[in-house]
Amino acid sequence: MKFIGWLFGLESVTSIDQIDPSFAAPWASEDVGPFWVWLGALACIGLAVAFYLRWQPKGSLAARGALAGCRGLLLALLLITLADPVLRLTVTNIRNPLVYVIFDGTESMLIEDEWSDDQRRALSDAVGGLAADRAAGVTEPDAARDPQRDPARLASRLDFLKAFLGRGDERNWLRRLQAERAVQVQPFIFDGAASSRLRRLSIGDDVNDMTTRRSSGGAIESDGNAGRIDPAAIAGQLTAEGQVTALGTLLEDIPQQLGSGNLAAVVLFSDFAHNSGTPPLGSSANSPAAKVGAPLYTVGIGATRAVDLAVDLQTDPKMKKAERANIVVKLKQSGLEGRAVNVSLLARRMSGETATAESLVGQRLINLPATEFTAVEFPFTPQEAGRFEFVASVEPLDGEVVSDNNRAAREVNIIDDYLRLMYVAYEPSWEWRFIKEVFHRDKLVGLQGFRTFLSSSDPRVRESNVLFLPSLTPKRSEFFASDVLFLDDMPQSALSPRFTEMVREFVGELGGGLVVIAGPRFGPRELLGTPLAEMLPVTLDPNARLRDEREFELRLTTEAMQQAFMRLDENPAENEKAWKNVGPLPWYQPVAALNKKATALAVHPFDKCADGETPQPLVAIGRYGKGEVVYLGFNETWRLRKKFGEKYYRQFWSQLIYRLGMSHALGDSKRFVPRLDRQQYRAEELVTFSVEAYDENYEPLTEESLANRTLRAELLVPGPGGSTQVRELAVPLLRKGQFEARFPVFVPGEYAIRVQDPVTERFEERRFDVTSVSAERSRAVRDEVLQRELAGRTQGRAYDLTNVENFLDDLRAEPRIETKTRNHALWTTPLWFAVIMILMLGEWFARKWIRLS
Q1: Can you tell me the distance from the alpha carbon of 604 to that of 615, in angstroms, rounded to the nearest whole number?
Q2: Which residue from 40, 56, 141, 616 could staple onto 604, CB 3.0 to 4.6 Å apart?
Q3: Which runs of E-coded beta strand occur in 166-231?
Q4: Contact criterion met (CB below 8 Å) for 366 and 376
């Protein structure tokens, strides 16, 4: 059957169930077209017979008859070829399951774990004796004389993996997988400098490798054992050059590979030390793990426990001068229970050409508890403004596998400024009154930071009272100096085109925050037809009207606890109690839908959107350009004050404006904002330095407005003996208002880049570190929790090298039988070509045999 399928140009055919011939050429596919084709074919045969029997007397009658048959059939086939013969075939084929085997190729695979004697013996048995022994330069007598020279002690995670894959006995896992389960196996490795990149590996034999690739693409759909795997060749291709482990990106890349439509399982060998990019797990069906489309079988490489202490530093990116803040140093320990460690926190100012001397914020001697995580708080009251770097560190301890993670640094901007809030409403409401009071007493805002525009207020009051803005559209320099804009219930007639366009620019281009509060009088439908409508995290309904038929209690979504302003208390039960304090709400403003990229934080308990499935969003947040927009479908949050006074009400609004306002430069400093894509780089990496630059009127700077058509900058590079070298740097225009420069760094140390503001001619400075240490070295143990979660979420299983052979029994992958009906051009098949060649050569040889000219 395979040979018959090949003749018809088909591969991997189990059976041909039906054949229906027809013609595809327009002239031959009409009602009487086939009649004329066959009549023409018979005429060709008749002409050939007449030619040989009448005009070729030489040779016997039988020989001339055979020649006439060959010539007639050949002419007939050529005529039929012009008619484009097509076979409508119904075929059955078998698609053997495809298994992706993916290996971790990041630097953490070079970590040499500490194992107990029992663990080493189990691992040595699993890998069939460590193939890395000779590479480590250790002979068997050496290991016998000195246990510390045991190859298993010197081997890295990658050594164990290579030995496991390359073992040459009958227990080789890859060979057994292909032979016993009759699957197609395609190996990959993931690595990369800034993200995880999936790369296909050769299976060893060029011919077999090509067969496997064609199978993955769907051209060859069965006979999974046709391409024999060479495990040693695969092991020889494994490297550990990747600088980050971005498991979320890796999982999103798997469905994009050729052949993934026939994917039965994914086997992932890794230490699962995720440290970059999208989290692999999520609560939604769109999480990277859910997108794989096949069970994920995870094989853990590396120890789950090790003598290690990792330091992490948590602090807000901005602090207010003269206000007390808590800096949290988190310690993650393994195998160090009861050990005493000295935790120190240093601060140094990063302004000026060089950093100032370090000052000690605090030092604490603690005994590490049995729990994995320990938090140490250091109170800190900044006495001066500027950019500061905080460094938390612990001296390396005896027996630590990795000591590079004993230090953590964070840069913080200490501001001597306030948030500028602009509240726009048609008339006073309870929400307006209480929000005004809260922020007047807020040290981050105060009397200077809160300004309001009430459309219904007396113009004389707006002119005389400093609380009020005289105009909805002040000068651009004043408008864009705001940090958060509140838009309460307003009629469309009161929203000028200039105002709506400036709001769009304020949020989308300058990263400002916008809070839209739906009121009972006009409603959000008033925003339809303005640029504000497309900025919202919800889709407006032009026919929607206020719903006040029955009272209801809002329901928090699972995503609400991820937002600080929705967490009125860290305890989920107390948080739920605090929101219950709002009580039954009498009304809300409905919308058509929640936007795809937005997140609903509170919803209606039973009313649905236009699709009949999505709950009506009451509190939603979404990004627009560089900024964020929060939508409230009611203006009744003042009810949070009912039992607890301002406690929860202040918590909600203070955290909300902190989220929207402190995420970008404050006030008029957002006019010229230098940024680095990261604070820490590795040697030989590219640094991306960008500047968002506007003139005095917040119009984007262009090349024409600059003397040298670029921004002037200086790069301060660490030199020998602690010296600093200054290099001139030009930051060219990327697009209007956006400048960007990229440059490599080679020498580890502390760098600084200073760029001149062409308006004020002052220099803005940003500092960064260059190290020779990869993020892969910041964690010494395998993340067993993530490994098991990934397997559990995808109906897979979790293993390690000592029990991964169980995968052969756990894999549930059967060949898939498919029946397909398709049109196949007959004249393109090997059968058609073979028949024509046989007829031509047969006639030619016969003429030579009987000596016809």
Answers
A1: 6
A2: 616
A3: 184-191, 197-200
A4: yes
d(CA 56, CA 54): 6
Which residue's structure tokens are 């995290």?
A: 537
Strands 421-425 and 484-487: what pairing? parallel
Start-to-end C-alpha separation, the chain: 42
- Cα distance between residue 406 and residue 311, in whole Å: 5
Domain boundary among 615, 644, 665: 665
Identify whether residues 334 and 407 lie together within a single domain.
yes
Beta partners for residue 389, in sequence order: 348, 411
Q: Which residues of 562-588 are buried (b: 16+ CB within 10 A; e: fewer)?
A: ebebbbbeeeeeebeebbebbeebebb
Domain that holds residue 568: 421-665
| Closest C-alpha to 737, from 820, 659, 625, 648 | 625
Q: Report which residue type is found at 364.
A: R
Is the same domain home to 374 and 293?
A: no
221/557 Cα distance (integer angstroms): 45
Q: How far is CA 158 from CA 79, 250, 571, 702, 802, in A?
A: 64, 19, 43, 51, 15
Structure tokens belonging to residue 391? 């460094």
Boundary-marking domain end, from 647, 665, 683: 665
- Strand 763-771 to strand 263-270: parallel, antiparallel, or no bridges (unpaired)? unpaired
Residues 431 and 320 in one domain: no
Tally of domains in the chain: 5
Do 140 and 232 belong to one domain? Answer: yes
Q: What is the CATH number of the domain that holds 687?
A: 2.60.40.1930
This model's pTM is above 0.70? no
Per-residue pLDDT at 257 exceeds 50: yes
Kind plus residue range of the DSSP H or E element containing 742: strand 738-744
Q: For residue range 480-512, what is the model confidence (pLDDT) as tens digits? A: 999 999 999 999 999 999 999 999 999 999 999
CB crowding 725-750: b at 16 or more within 10 Å, else e:
eeeebebebeeebebbbeeebeeeeb
Q: In this structure, are 299 and 317 located in the same domain?
A: no
- Answer yes or no: do 703 and 792 share one domain: no
Which tops the pLDDT comparison, 593 or 337?
593
CA dist 604 → 333, 518, 692 (Å) = 44, 15, 40
Beta carbons of 106 and 158 less than 8 angstroms apart:
no
